[in-house]
Amino acid sequence: MSAPPPHRHIRRARETLGEAETVVVLTGAGVSADSGVPTFRGQGGLWREHRPEDLATPAAFARDPRLVWEWYGWRRELVSACAPNAAHLALARWQEGPRPIHIVTQNVDGLHRLARDRIRDGAGGSTTGEILELHGSLFRTRCTCCAAVENSRAPIDATSEASLPHCGACGALLRPDVVWFGEPLDAHVLDRAFRLAARAEVCLVVGTSAIVQPAAAVATEAARAGAALVEVNPEVTPLSRVARLSLRGRAAEIVPLLV
Ligand code: BJW
Ligand code: ZN
């Protein structure tokens, strides 16, 4: 584990973020690591035990939907027991302020939305900031035939193919409404993310290895359009060399100091 970033780096990052009129925050699995949600790559990451091509591709689902649903059922249960951490909550509080702060997340755990709901908790919502989920949601299903989409938190029974969730409208097999490798992202969501990135004065990047495209390009697009990148990650990433500031540390420790 790296040493905490010096106080002057935190101060500079606060100043950079404080001066910006519009901010885009790009988050990845690392922002939820402190909530107990496993990341994909690196130590303890999901891809250490499972091959992505066995579980997170359309071909894997076509080959063995029971295996894929078993894995997603396990992740739904795991994430259901997790709560937003200090980083999610700090970002949600920041979004309630007067400036538009937009969150573009690769995560499918729903913890940014949950944090926003917790912060509001009956106080009404006034934010102009959006939350865009680029890779879908663990808690949504999509029909493999008629494309019906539903929110669902029900436990998954993956004992047999017949016990897997099926569509109420047409009876076909449902799948998790997430984006697997080789699949296009929702065009509207992606387009909106790139528009917000192109207008942002600062792009805060938290807890992503920044190797999965096109999500990582949201940050590079912001930088290309002139935004300052501020990165929070315990490790070096491909964005570190273009970032104005890279703060090495955990999201739940660093983010609340910045916003
Ligand atoms: C902490 C921390 C703490 C730890 N605090 N930080 C070559 C070049 C360019 C692209 C490609 C290419 N070859 C293939 C592609 C395309 C492919 C891709 O990008 N592959 C790369 C691996 C090379 N992309 C796609 O296939 C995408 N689709 C696409 O391109 O479609 C084109 C198309 C167009 C038209 C028609 C058809 C197709 C889709 C990508 C979908 C990714 N899906 C997943 C699974 C989602 C569902 C699920 O969760 O099950 O999304 S994969 C996985 O990776 C997940 C994540 O959202 C995504 C990114 O991972 P993330 O969030 O960065 O996590 P990690 O684990 O990688 O990193 C965690 C970071 O946190 C680390 O840096 C740690 O240091 C840090 N950290 N603790 C702060 N406490
Ligand atoms: Zn259907």
Can you describe what's shown?
- The chain has 2 domains: 1-36 and 84-135 and 185-259, 3-Layer(aba) Sandwich (Rossmann fold); 38-81 and 138-178, 2-Layer Sandwich (SIR2/SIRT2 'Small Domain'), CATH 3.30.1600.10.
- 37% of the residues lie in helices and 16% in strands.
- A 6-stranded parallel beta sheet has the order 3-2-1-7-8-9, sandwiched between helices.
- Helix 7 packs across helix 8.
- It is α/β, with parallel strands linked by helices.
- The chain contains 11 helices and 9 strands.
- The structure holds ligand BJW and zinc ion.
- Ligand BJW is lined by residues 28-30, 33-34, 39-42, 45, 56, 106, 108, 135, 178-184, 207-209, 211-214, 232-235, 237, 250-251.
The first-level CATH class name of the largest domain: Alpha Beta
The chain-level mean pLDDT equals 94
Radius of gyration: 19 Å
Question: Which sequence of strands runs across the widest sheet?
Answer: 3-2-1-7-8-9
**Percentage of residues in DSSP E strands:** 15-25%
Q: Looking at this structure, what is the CATH superfamily of the largest domain?
A: TPP-binding domain
* DSSP E strands, number: 9
Largest sheet: 6 strands, parallel
Briefly note the CATH topology name of the largest domain: Rossmann fold
The number of helical segments is 11
Percent helix, as a range, is 25-40%
Distance between the termini: 23 Å
Q: What is the general shape?
A: globular
Order of helix and strand elements from N to C terminus: HEHHHHHHEHEEEEHEHEEH
Protein structure class = alpha/beta
Query: pLDDT below 50 for ≥5 consecutive residues: which ranges?
Result: none
The unique ligands bound to this protein are:
ligand BJW, zinc ion
How many distinct domains? 2
Tell me which CATH architecture of the largest domain applies here: 3-Layer(aba) Sandwich
